[in-house]
Amino acid sequence: MVIICPQLEAHGACTNPLCTGYHDVHLCDLCGIFCASTSYYEAHLASKKHRRKLAGLGGQYHCTICSASVSGRKSWVQHVQGKRHCRNAKNKGVLPEVAPAIPEVLPGKVFCGVCDKQVPEGLWPSHPQSLEHRRKEGYTAFKTALEEAEKDKHGIVLSKGLDFGIMENTDAARGALQTLTIESTVPSSRVIIKKVSLSSSFAGGQSPFSITTTAEGAVLTYRRPTAIDIRFSTPHSGRMDDRLEILFEDTALRVTFVIARALKAIVGSQADHELLKPIAPFQPRRRTRAQPEAQVVSGVPPPSKNIIPYIINLPRAQPSESLLAALSETSTGKALDHVKRVFLPKVIDSSTYSRYFKTLLWTEEYRMERDLEHYDIHDAQLERHGLYYHLPVPGLAEKRPSVLIGDRFLVQKHGAVEGHWYEGHVHFVRQASVGLRFDRSFHGWSQQQRYTVRFKLNRIPMRRQHQALDTAFAFDKFLFPRKAHILPLASRPGVGPIVPFNSLIATNPPQLQAVTSILLQQPGSAPFAVFGPPGTGKTITIVEAMKQLLKHKPNSRILATAPSNSAADIIASRLASTLGPDELFRLYAPSRHLDQVPDELQSCTHKKRLEGEDKSCFSVPPIPILKHFKVIVCTCVSASIPYGIGIPRGHFTHIFVDEAGQATEPEVMIGIKTMADNATNIVLAGDPKQLGPIIRSNIARQLGLEQSYLERLMSTDTYDPQSGHGLSVVKLVKNFRSHPAILKFPNERFYANDLESCGNKNVIRAFEGWNKLPSKKFPIIFHSISGKDDREATSPSFFNIDEVTQVRKYIQLLRDDRQIRVAHNEIGVIAPYHAQCVKIRKMLSGVADEVKVGSVEEFQGQERRVIIISTVRSSRDFVEFDLKYTLGFVANPRRFNVAVTRAKALLIVIGDPNVLSLDPLWRSFLNYVHLNGGWAGPGPTWDTTETVDESGEYDQHIRAAAMTDMNLLARRIEEVVTDNVQTGMASGDDDDDDANVDRPWRELE
Known about the structure:
- By secondary structure, the protein is an alpha/beta fold.
- It is built from 33 helices and 43 strands.
- The strands form twelve sheets. Strands 17, 18, 19, 20, 21, 22, 23 and 24 form an eight-stranded mixed beta sheet that branches. A seven-stranded parallel beta sheet has the order 27-30-26-31-32-25-33, sandwiched between helices. Strands 40-39-41-42-36-43 form a six-stranded parallel beta sheet.
- The two termini are 51 Å apart.
- One of its GO terms (biological process) is regulatory ncRNA-mediated gene silencing.
- Belongs to the DNA2/NAM7 helicase family. SDE3 subfamily.
- This is RNA helicase.
């Protein structure tokens, strides 16, 4: 319905950036929100905010289209879908998807206009004193006061607010001048300018704005403008704002009043802002999977699906309908409580272990399915090439999502019968497209035909984990080891002297102790942990241990696993230096591309030619040959292949898991629960202080799926690094990566200050004395910048143009520096949001393409000579401040630890200190940098010598300061109106939806 915008008509202005005065406007009576388009309205109806309000109606609904009341949510859904309702909606020219109106009176409820919600009568007396109510009441008062201050009044008219626009750094440093004019429009009035000031002056802060001329004491003359000059000058980049407040006195009426104007400026690159600006205003993505999958025509799977001769079938492992119903609860909190009460065992022990983790896997799978909906393509085209149909997949090159050979898509022609889909199996994956094969009944293709495409989750990795959990292997000494399970080490004489293959290990006591302990473990000992903080050489240590086992115990058979192919390839490559292709086998899943394998490992693999095709894929040799290998290396998920083809339990004397902290416990258990027997020794290597596995479900995360097997063991007394040293655990302490200043802070916060900086001085101290360092001996820079976090189109991921520009400037400084030569591939840029990574790559395209830009997860296990971190978030709205949403992934100790420990010689962090300092960990780090002279940009607004409050309530301090500013403004304004204020639409708050957009997809074979 095309009508005049109600906000424009009522208030003279509309907050919607798309508003042109006449547009498709839809009002949600339930939430009191105008939506400026049909798509906005549909997105709002699907948002969690709306659904929560719907749930709060107590089962009473009122339809404004039919003027009818409906009882019960299910009845409401049926009513909206009914023919009578749809006919009435069509006759009135409105959408049938109307929101229910709020009944004037709800039984047992009182409506609070300030909080915009129904409050139970029993809680109403105390509600006005609640923190939530008082905060929103104060915010409403502030908005009202601010709107009143910005109104022209008493016949005095001011020019609009002063926006200095986007200024280059050189221009901002020189300074710029703008003029604000004041004019009296009433001939007989007599008004005096009493005071001209900046709001920052009341708070005692520093401002880049200054009043260079004032007219205090001047009497305004009718139609004769009075000018006030405002100067802007700063050496810093970022966004600046202030408020000009002018106090007037009407001498005839003997009243004083205030008129205020906003001041703002952006210091940065005009070209950058033009290049990186949002491509479209942000609006939440609509969910579109309402249409059922009633009839699915099966596709043609790739030949590689049957290339491995399995003799044990994978279980279907389907979740129960009751669990799916519980997970579909509107509220995440309700779903979490339901799962805990009904589906999880009260006690987790060896007998309930499998049931517990199977439930968590189904919970995670449910969330993964929902997250895949974000990638559905609603207007796709297919290109036909013989038997294959090529489908372009946005984000494929970045593995968002990750697509492997054998994955499935569902495809439906536009205009097809509802519920009728064709399944397409992926036969090959290219950089930006995949090749699908459908059933022969798939016809009607043309270049003009459009399709709806749904991504379907590949359940095989999950089914392999379920298969392992279903086995009867459940010994306490492996699942819940106690000190009584720790066996003493065997005597050395039976082994002989240990001469390390890697001579450096002989000079590193913790590494040598770990190798010795693994070598001397008695068969069937409890798992042994190699606790390897950043840069301490845990992979080198376990590879040395494997080599020593094969040297001193030739009958050893080793299964070496890791969560990723890249980590498994590192193990295999280091073993290949001493083991031949008849001793070492690198087991790959058939979905792995042949060209993704390092050259030195090609001879350690086995390939089979695909039937009817002129190409091969990875497979396994016959069982007698496979059993002959001394070491088999594979991913945790592919560790199910030996079990599936019939390798007997107990064949492997040792099972190693590298990067064990990054795998879920069920992943690690694939190899252990299917291959180990009572005499198998298990070795875990990793760092529980760094990132754990990527878990997409908030429910599964809270229930423990994010805690790795390694972390769970090391949280017990049995694996205390002090008391268990050499018996159950060894903590490596020699760091060969980072400069002492870079290592110092994470060392104290996460590793009990045990780490020693032992890196090559020519590498780690290369930037000491660099002329761009604020402190010449301290190779850490925190660059303070106040930017703006933006979103665009349907992506909830954030980006910050001001920080992108600053990242590029530092890379240019490094590239052009003649004092220290730095190659692009020696620089890494870490950002917590995918959208920021995309913008940075765009800015560096064609200039510095070899600079790796990625998330914290993508950098775990990696290192660079120089690391630049862009923290992105820079919210200025401290009144409605929410630490969780504003800091996002930044406020996570493990992500922080991984991010700041990737650098060898130089660490640069770019961010808004006013946001970051709300988190106690970040505040401590900022204090550390500032006190050591590494600060650049505007200084901190707090005392960096004060002890940090670890309770983490700095957001409350910011709120209190903001409230103080509100109260001061209100006191400075004598006239306050009490008109209702339309505050606009807030975006949906689905925690998992927003967060998971920035979580990478793990590539599980």
